[in-house]
Amino acid sequence: MKIHCRKTGKPSRLGFLLPFVLLAIAACAGKPGQNAENLRIATDAEVRAEVQELANQIANVSGKGRLARPDVNSSECDNDEGDTSGAVKYIQGVYNIDIPAAKQRDAFNSVREHWQKMGWKITRNDFRQDLNEGVLSAKNQGDSGNFTLSSTTSADSLAVIIHSGCFRETQPTTPPSR
User: Fold this and answer.
1) Does residue 5 lie in a domain region?
2) pLDDT tens digits, one per residue of 77-91
3) C-alpha distances in Å from residue 56, one per residue of 11, 68, 71
4) What's the CA gap between 3 and 155, in Å, rounded?
5) Which of 23, 74, 154, 173 is the most buried (most CB within 10 A)?
6) pLDDT in tens, 100-110
7) What's the total number of domains in the chain?
8) Which residues are within 8 A (CB) of 95 and not within 5 positions of it... i.e. 6 or more apart?
9) Rounded to a whole number, what is the distance in angstroms from the first to the last CA of the chain?
10) Residues 139, 152: Cα–Cα separation, whole Å
11) pTM above 0.85, yes or no
C-alpha cells in the first residue's frame, strides 16, 4: 500500500506503517486469555451506543470535526474458558472525522490532552510536523477499551478506530406484553 504525503507528494513513512498498526490493534482487541467469568454483562446495542458516543466525543474534542463513513461491527473475544458461543465479544467502530488539514495537529494535541486528563493511557503518540500526519492510540484502564486516531490519505480527514472492552452479551429484556 503506497501512501503519500499530502504536502510534498513523497512516500510517507507513517503511511507505510499505518496498515500494520491497525492490523496489530485489531488482532489484540480480543484480549486472548481473558477470563469470561469477570466480564461486564451488556447488550450488543448498549455497547454499540457507547462506541458511538466515544466517537462523537473524539470528533468534538478534535475541533468539532464531523463523523463520516461509520462502520460498526462485533467480533468474538478469546477467553480462558474456551467459550465459543459468540456471547463473549467486543464492538469495533471505524469512522472518519472530516477536519481540515490545517487543524489536524491541534486535533491530535486536543484529543491526547483530553483523554490523558480522563485517565486513559496514551499508548502511541506520533505526529510528524513536516508531513502533517500522525497516529495517536489510547487505552481505557477501566474496561480495556481503546481507540486510535490516525491520518488518512485524504488531506481533510482523520480515521478513528474504536474497540470496546470484551463483554458477555445478554439479550435485551422484552417489556411485558399487555
Assistant:
1) no
2) 876 566 666 778 899
3) 31, 11, 14
4) 12
5) 74
6) 888 999 999 99
7) 1
8) 55, 59, 67, 68, 69, 70, 71, 159, 160, 162
9) 58
10) 21
11) no
Is 71 part of any domain?
yes
The amino acid at residue 61 is V
Q: Which three cell numbers stand for residue 123?
A: 499508548
> Where residue 113 sits, what CATH number does that domain have?
3.30.2030
Query: What is the span of the domain harbouring residue 54?
Result: 13-169
Sequence-distant (6+) residues with CB within 8 A of 50 are: 91, 164
pLDDT (tens digit per residue) in 16-30: 334 433 433 443 444
CA distance 43 to 26: 21
8-state DSSP, 59: H
In a domain, 147, yes or no: yes
Query: How far apart are the C-alpha atoms of 19 and 39, rounded to whole Å?
Result: 30
CA torsion 86-164-128-154 (nearest 10°) is 70
Alpha carbon distances (Å) from 43 to 31, 49, 166 = 19, 10, 12
Residue 122: pLDDT band by 50, 70, 90 thresholds?
A: very high
Residue owning grid cell 512516500: 11
